Amino acid sequence: MVDMDKIISLCKRRGFLFQGSEQYGGLQGVWDYGPLGVELKNNVKQAWWRKMVYERDDMEGLDSSILMNRLVLKYSGHEDTFCDPMVDCRKCKKRFRADQIEASEKCSDGESHDYTEARPFNLMFRTTVGPIADENNIAYLRPETAQGIFVNFKNVLDSTNRKVPFGIAQIGKAYRNEITPKNFIFRVREFEQMEIEFFVKPGTDEEWHKQWIEERFQWYVKLGIRPENLRKYVQKPEELAHYAKGTTDLLYRFFPDRPDEQKQFDEVEGIANRMDFDLTSHSKGGKLVLKDGKVFPNEHAINRLTWFDHETNQHIVPYVIEPSAGVDRATLAFLIDSYHEEEVKGETRLVLRLHPELSPIKVAVLPLKKNHDGIVSVAKGIKKLLQGKAGWRTVYDDTAGIGKLYRRQDEIGTPFCVTVDFQTLQDQTVTVRDRDTMAQERVVIDALPALFSEKLFRKQN
Question: How far apart are alpha carbons 334 and 172 in whole angstroms?
């Protein structure tokens, strides 16, 4: 497998990702997605949405706001407890998360750090709403998308006439003021989440939890992640959030160069059984119960967040199963897993074997001679045919010789290349090259949409 430095180099060179605000020296923990990166990231989100929403009969979508009423994050517990332990080094003045300090970490003088006592640091970004910046106008950038789903539970339920079990899915930005963002886009301050809150009857929650763990594991595998690079980690009782009945993390091998195999894996997604904690906390007449036993009765909510079960003639507070994935971490996992280097005719060939559903570009159309009007005209016509009528992201590229163009498309994960040459002008056939096998075949232009439809569909399933 590839190490992170090679992935970062590829991403910068080919326009997947750039350091945020690089023109002014950058901003730590913030990254900008370039021309290919935004396509890849969008494809990851679309693949998730298609599978989780369109292909299910028990799911609705939502897009809640990033700015939230302070009370939402008060009764979710974030305002009081969403903290990481922070320490400072008295010598070099750097700050660290106390629970992530490496034993081998050295100070700038080559000796050990001299750490302060750990103290809590709230991770939420705080702002104010309106022209007056005072305590009455405090708001937060949401630290997760989940709370927007919980406070909209009754709205979705009433407007769709759904019955439990059903889920609400959301993709959106979240913000956490990480003490030490690191490892490229693995730990950042601005990120996107793909989250589902799946509401079930109490008593059925454990079975649904198992189903969702398997469902989410298989999603990664079907999109090209090798099973040996994924693990299911069942959190121990002492590791669980105080509101969780059980949580299983899906771990990916993000750091294959680490000597300790266990440290090679880290979380790409978590699937939690949150019981009725959130709906109870946000409900009129409900209460927030913190880990230390403190209780805050909800005196501000205007609705009871319950569902009327006609079978029992009772209002019940559903339990919640939450599959929560990071878009950025998933994108990074797909990049790492698809990266391959191989020897071809004495040269190193770099290829991203991305699943076609995720590939930023589906087809590249390449003219054998860029200053020949006939060849160029046909090539641009094929590009228009495949992108305009068939709807596949297609590019026309004449900026290098055909060999270099093939290598460029291999490097960015394009599944197929179409080469237009002098024979095309005689018999209306083109060369179709497969990224993974490098095999080539002559195909009639009119047959291209059907051919790619069959090949892309076969590779996607």
Answer: 19
Instruction: Say if 370 falls within a structural domain.
Output: yes
Measured between alpha carbons, how far is 154 from 134 in angstroms, rounded to an integer?
32
Q: State which amino acid sits at residue 181.
A: P
Alpha-carbon dihedral of residues 172, 176, 180, 183, nearest 10 degrees? -10
User: Across residues 131-152, what is the average pLDDT?
Assistant: 91
Q: Report the number of distinct structural domains present in the chain.
A: 2
Q: Is 413 domain-assigned?
A: yes
Residue 460: what pLDDT?
53
| Cα–Cα dist 444/365, whole Å | 14
> Structure tokens of 13?
């060179």
In a domain, 43, yes or no: yes
Alpha carbons 50 and 149: distance in angstroms, whole number: 19
Per-residue pLDDT averaged across 186-193, rounded? 95
Per-residue pLDDT band at 458 (split at 50, 70, 90): low
Question: Which two tokens mark 371?
Answer: 């200053």
Among residues 413, 422, 458, 416, which one has the least CA distance to residue 441? 416
- Closest by CA to 335, choosing from 320, 351, 348, is 351
DSSP string of 20-86, one letter each residue: TTGGGT--TT-EEE-HHHHHHHHHHHHHHHIIIIIT-SSEEEE---SEE-HHHHHHTSHHHH-EEEE
DSSP code per residue over 316-339 = E--EEEEEEEEHHHHHHHHHHHHE
3-class secondary structure, 251? strand
> Looking at the structure, do residues 261 and 185 belong to the same domain, yes or no?
yes
What CATH number should be reported for the domain holding residue 33? 3.30.930.10
List all residues 6 or more positions away from 72 whose beta carbon is below 8 Å from its beta carbon.
147, 148, 151, 282
Q: What is the DSSP string of 291-313?
A: TTS-EEE--S--S---EEETTTT
Q: Which domain holds residue 401?
A: 361-460
If asked whether residues 171 and 264 sit together in one domain, one would say yes
Quick: pLDDT tens for 68-80. 899 999 999 998 8
Least confident piece of the model among 60-64, 110-114, 439-443? 110-114
Shared domain for 241 and 374, answered yes or no, is no
Q: Judge whether 104 lies within some domain.
A: no
